[in-house]
Each structure stands twice: as structure tokens, then as C-alpha cells.
Design goal:
It is a single chain. By secondary structure, this protein is an alpha+beta fold. It has a domain of 110 residues: Lipocalin, CATH 2.40.128.270. It contains two helices and ten strands; from the N terminus they run H-E-E-E-E-E-E-E-H-E-E-E. An eight-stranded antiparallel β-barrel has the order 1-3-4-5-6-8-9-10. It is rod-shaped, with a radius of gyration of 64 Å. It starts with a helix and ends in an 18-residue tail after the last strand. The relative contact order is 0.13.
């Protein structure tokens, strides 16, 4: 009997404990689940946006080099038409004309040069003068200055031999032309006279104004 009672009491205790356990589980399940407070995961910020690479500006355009303008052309200086006035380059009135020597200036009367001698000179715009002595021919440089002076020479001539009187006239003409001289033009006549020698000089006339003289032609024939 006592054993039976003990068994019953044990079963009663077990049932009671089971009921309590069930109640506890029911209470636990009924209570709302509470999330433990946790910090939010850090929000990943967007990676910095690469700004556009600097745009390469076009290389500066090279402007054309300044165009060099032609050097001003030297215009001829105003020419005074008064006889004896000249300019440095190609004086008007003396160039481009064939000048025939007609006489030597001397202390006394003029010493005539026969037209049949065939001598002449001509000034070119390039600063040269061509010379024909009636025997030999040649050329030389010529320089004009602003004070009506000119300088010719030395004159380079051919070496042909002619009659004595022709050679003497050639020597006189060349000697006077190679002296620093003054010059002047009056009408169709050109006068050249040395700057450092008095009472001498050469008078020329434009070939167009010279009358051919054949009366003494035989006198000036060249030697063979």
C-alpha cells in the first residue's frame, strides 16, 4: 500500500512538473521576440567619381611669319636740269647717248678732233662707260658725285696698233678721261675737264648732232 502511494505521489509530481514546464514554454513562445539592438551595417558610399581628365587644348596655331616686304626701291633723286648738276646714279642727260669728242680744250684755241677719227664714249645705267678711241675699244667703271664730278677708270682697252696720229689722239683722250673731272651739258654738248689740271679738257657732241667728216679719213687709217 505504502509503495503504491509512493508511486502515485511520484507520478503526481511528474505531472505537475510537466504542466509547469508546458506553461513556461507557452509563456516563452507568447512573448514577442525582441531583436537585440544592433548597429546598422555601414552604408558603403559610392567610390569617388573620377573627374574627366583635363581636355588637351589644341596646340597654338603658328601664325605665318611676317611677310618681308621688298626693300623700298631707291628712286632717282630729283634732277636739276641746270647744266653741271648730277646725281650719283645714272644722271639724266648724260647716259644712253653716244658722245663724239670734237675738240681738246687748251690754253689757246680749241684743238679740233676730226669726226673721221671715229672716237666716242657712252655712259650706261649700270655705272660703266664704253670707250672707242677710233683705234681700240674698251670700258671702265664710272662714278658720279653730287657736285658734278665724275671719275672714270682705269680704262681697259684692246691692244690693236694703229697709225701714229691715231694712237696719239687715243693717248690724249684716255689720259683726260682717267682724270677725276667735272662735267656739264649745254644743249647737245658735253664738256669734261679735269678737277686738278687747268686749261685742258674735252668737248663732246651728241652723235646725232655731229656731221660726218670724210675729208681727212685717209689720215686716220689703221696700220695693217
Amino acid at each position: 500500500m505504502l509503495r503504491t502511494t509512493s508511486i502515485l505521489l511520484s507520478l503526481t509530481a511528474i505531472v505537475a512538473m510537466s504542466a509547469c514546464g508546458s506553461a513556461d514554454d507557452s509563456g516563452k513562445s507568447a512573448s514577442p521576440a525582441v531583436s537585440s539592438p544592433g548597429t546598422a551595417a555601414p552604408v558603403e558610399t559610392a567610390a569617388p567619381v573620377d573627374t574627366a581628365a583635363p581636355v588637351e587644348t589644341a596646340a597654338p596655331i603658328e601664325t605665318a611669319a611676317p611677310i618681308e616686304t621688298a626693300a623700298p626701291v631707291d628712286t632717282a633723286a630729283p634732277v636739276d636740269t641746270t647744266p653741271g648738276v648730277s646725281v650719283v646714279k645714272d644722271p639724266i642727260g648724260i647716259g644712253g647717248i653716244t658722245w663724239v669728242p670734237t675738240s681738246f680744250i687748251t690754253v689757246g684755241p680749241l684743238d679740233e678732233i676730226p669726226a673721221s677719227q671715229g672716237a666716242s664714249i657712252e655712259f650706261a645705267a649700270d655705272g660703266t662707260v664704253t670707250v672707242d678711241t677710233g683705234c681700240n675699244t674698251g670700258s671702265a667703271s664710272v662714278t658720279f658725285t653730287g657736285d658734278s664730278q665724275l671719275a672714270i677708270g682705269p680704262i681697259a682697252l684692246t691692244k690693236k696698233a694703229c697709225a701714229d696720229n691715231v694712237m696719239k689722239l687715243e693717248s690724249r683722250i684716255v689720259a683726260l678721261l682717267e682724270e677725276p673731272s667735272y662735267w656739264s651739258i649745254t644743249g647737245n654738248q658735253l664738256t669734261i675737264y679735269p678737277a686738278n689740271i687747268t686749261d685742258t679738257g674735252l668737248i663732246f657732241k651728241a652723235a646725232s648732232a655731229v656731221t660726218p667728216d670724210t675729208s681727212t679719213l685717209a689720215t686716220f687709217q689703221t696700220t695693217s
